[in-house]
Structure formats: structure tokens, C-alpha cells
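fold-stage: in
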Amino acid sequence: MARVYHQQMVERGAEHLKACCVVAARLAERLWVVMRRRMPYVICDVDGIPVSALAA
């Protein structure tokens, strides 16, 4: 999510509130997919590789 926030703020020149809203929408979408699939959420690093909760 930090990457999404950084893209909004730096690359697109968005205000803080807009960047936070984009991050919130992404989190809501992830939550919806996890609930729909009835599978646990997998934490991944920035390259998309799953990591443990302690390593995250």
C-alpha cells in the first residue's frame, strides 16, 4: 500500500486526502476478494512474493 500512496503523491501529484482514499479503495477491494473467495489473506512483499507476518 505504501507503493500506491507514493505513486499517488509523487508521480501523480495528488493531495494527501486523495492518496489516502485511493489506498482505502485498494484495501476495500482486497477485503472483498478475500471474503468472496473465503481464503486467508496472504501478505506479500513489493515483488509479490508471499512473506510471513513477522517478516512483513
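fold-stage: in (second)
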Amino acid sequence: MKRRSALLFVLLACSFAHRAAADCMPNGSGKMVCGPPESSCMQDRYREVVCSPSGGGIALDRYQNPVCGAGACVRDVRGDIHCSRTARGSAAIDMNAAAACTDGCAPASAAMCVKPAPSN
């Protein structure tokens, strides 16, 4: 029983360690960059790390540029990206193929994205 508990503890610790490092990645210079808490990050075409705000969403627009919103984001049938106006808010496409979001939708924008500094 102790062996099983120890194994479970190790597996849980590894999964939390992986989760904590999931939004850290190297930039174009090879330096590690970590986004804000509760954010998602990706590299832009120049290999610079771009992140969503805390509780927000990030996606590539039709020109392959990262755009962000305060909450989760979805792409509509025209390729426009809409995000919830609320941090940690939800977004989905309704049966009429329109974006539906918590507290309403706002267009995603590059200005909402965060460019974190590399770690020392």
C-alpha cells in the first residue's frame, strides 16, 4: 500500500511540474520565456513568445499573427476571431454559426497579447 501511495504521489508531482512548465518556451534567442499565470503562449513568425492575458485566449488570425482576448476565443465561419469580454469566460459557435461568449464577444486583437521578458 505504501508503495502504491508513493507511486501515486510521484505521478501527481510529475503532472503538476509538467503543467507549471507548460507555458514556458524558448524564444528565438533560445532564452526561456514564461507567460503570466493562467495564460497560453505561442511563438509568432519571428519565434518571439506571445501570450494571452491571464485567463484569456490566444489564436492565430488569418494572416498567421497571434491575437488575444480577455477570455476564451473562437473562430467564426468567416475566419474572424472573437473572444469573451470576461477573463476566464467561455466562447463557442452557436447553431447559426455566430460566436457566443460570456458577457458578450469582442474581436481578438494583437494589442491584448502580452510579450513576456525572458527569464534570467
